[in-house]
């Protein structure tokens, strides 16, 4: 490298907000992903049928140090090569968030590095810029286990919410359905797999809010309808399970497509821009990706979906958000307090339903 070329900005990213312990090294110059390690806690939580917060926090504590060591090794760098440390500062399971934030603060303090507290949702929101250099503004469908929102992404740190779920998130609906159908945990991938051999028209399920104005979502009624269908049908065999999974997946996709279609027009009118991005764990679903691609094409929008491994929780997205924030001078003090709730658009009216996150 010639002496007048700036060295790459390398950031350590840490993600511990749910049941994935993740560490990554991300660069502002290609290749951007220098290391991207995710240790899933599936084995620890499976027998409980869902994520147990205390077990998650303990597992983050047990594995984070060694994962960070390995990430640096894979990237071929030491702590001295880093320009900063970014960790998920919320929203999420607070015990886990505290583990990641404390670790990041300790490294930042010991090495005199900037510390960046990243909103987990901003990590998902900016992933399309890491992978595809998508320009602002863009319309984002953020679909994960805890969130289901449509947002205009205007700049780093500037989000306008167009719609949100009034009750459950789409991922939650997948997870609860999987439990009900005995498909195991985590639910989304299990439902998607079972649905491959099922008939999506076999069981008529409702599409809450479909055809209504606006961009809000609702999945509680769909979940209840599925539970009632299973109850009336009796214990489903493999065939029925596949049909139920396919019917549920189609219903969720229909709802997401209908609400996103409304958002495309509102976004185009307000921002004069035409890019649709999908992010979050549910964005790994192939049926949903194909349907969104077709919707965007019909509406004259470009469509960007990050690779599935960067849709589900990871630390590369946290490292990348850290780079974007550091480039703009947006760093945090070591007195940052982890936030169990942290809306991307604090000005949005609180959603009305029960159980609404952030
Ligand atoms: O973004 P994420 O990894 O964690 C949260 O921030 O919540 O999203 C996890 C959610 C879970 O509900 C999981 O079942 C769902 O994403 N998910 C999927 C698929 N892969 C993960 N849902 C549908 N199809 C998938 N292939
Ligand atoms: Zn997530």
Mean pLDDT, as a whole number? Answer: 95
Summarize the helix and strand pattern as letters. EEEHHEHEHEEEHHHHEHEHH
CATH class of the largest domain: Alpha Beta
Outline the biggest β-sheet: 5 strands, mixed
Task: Give, in spatial order, the strands making up the sheet with the most strands.
Answer: 3-2-1-4-5
Number of domains: 2
* Coarse morphology: globular
What is the count of helical runs? 11
Structural write-up:
- With 358 residues, the chain is of the alpha/beta class.
- The chain has 2 domains: 134 residues, Nucleotidyltransferase, domain 5; 173 residues, ATPase, nucleotide binding domain (Nucleotidyltransferase, domain 5, 2-Layer Sandwich).
- The protein has 11 helices and 10 strands.
- It has a 5-stranded mixed sheet with strand order 3-2-1-4-5, sandwiched between helices.
- α2 runs parallel beside α3, α4 packs across α11 and α5 runs parallel beside α7.
- The radius of gyration is 20 Å and the shape is globular.
- The model has no long low-confidence stretch (mean pLDDT 95).
- The chain binds 5'-O-[(R)-(carboxyoxy)(hydroxy)phosphoryl]adenosine (KG4) and zinc ion (ZN).
- 5'-O-[(R)-(carboxyoxy)(hydroxy)phosphoryl]adenosine binds next to α5 and α6.
Comma- or semicolon-separated keywords:
binds 5'-O-[(R)-(carboxyoxy)(hydroxy)phosphoryl]adenosine; 2 domains; Nucleotidyltransferase, domain 5; 5-stranded mixed sheet; 11 helices; binds zinc ion; alpha/beta; 358 residues; 44% helix
């Amino acid at each position: 490298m010639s002496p007048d070329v700036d060295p790459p900005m390398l950031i350590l990213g840490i993600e511990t907000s749910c049941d994935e312990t993740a560490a990554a090294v991300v660069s502002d110059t290609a290749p951007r992903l220098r290391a991207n390690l995710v240790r899933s806690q599936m084995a620890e939580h499976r027998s409980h049928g869902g994520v147990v917060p205390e077990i998650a926090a303990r597992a983050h504590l047990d594995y984070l140090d060694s994962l960070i060591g390995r990430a640096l090794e894979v990237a071929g760098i030491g702590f001295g090569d880093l320009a900063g440390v970014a960790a998920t500062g919320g929203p999420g399971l607070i015990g886990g968030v505290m583990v990641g934030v404390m670790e990041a603060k300790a490294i930042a303090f010991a090495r005199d590095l900037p510390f960046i507290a990243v909103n987990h949702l901003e990590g998902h929101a900016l992933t399309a810029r890491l992978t595809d250099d998508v320009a602002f503004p863009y319309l984002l469908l953020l679909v994960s286990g805890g969130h289901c929102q449509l947002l205009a992404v205007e700049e780093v740190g500037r989000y306008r919410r167009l719609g949100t779920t009034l009750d459950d998130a789409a991922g939650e609906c997948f997870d609860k359905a999987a439990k009900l159908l005995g498909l195991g945990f985590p639910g989304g991938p299990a439902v998607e797999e079972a649905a491959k051999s099922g008939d999506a028209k076999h069981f008529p399920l409702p599409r809450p809010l479909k055809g209504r104005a606006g961009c809000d979502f609702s999945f509680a009624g769909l979940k209840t309808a599925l539970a009632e269908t299973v109850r009336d049908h009796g214990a489903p065999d493999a065939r029925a399970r596949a049909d139920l999974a396919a019917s549920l997946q189609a219903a969720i996709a229909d709802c997401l497509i209908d609400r996103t279609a409304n958002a495309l027009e509102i976004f185009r009118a307000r921002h004069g821009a035409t890019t649709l991005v999908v992010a979050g764990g549910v964005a790994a679903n192939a049926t949903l990706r194909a349907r969104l691609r077709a919707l965007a094409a019909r509406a004259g929008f470009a469509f960007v979906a990050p690779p599935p491994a960067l849709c589900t929780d990871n630390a590369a997205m946290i490292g990348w958000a850290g780079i974007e924030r550091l480039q703009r001078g947006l760093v945090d003090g070591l007195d940052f307090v982890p936030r169990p709730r942290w809306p991307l658009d604090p000005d949005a009216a609180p959603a009305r339903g029960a159980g609404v996150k952030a």
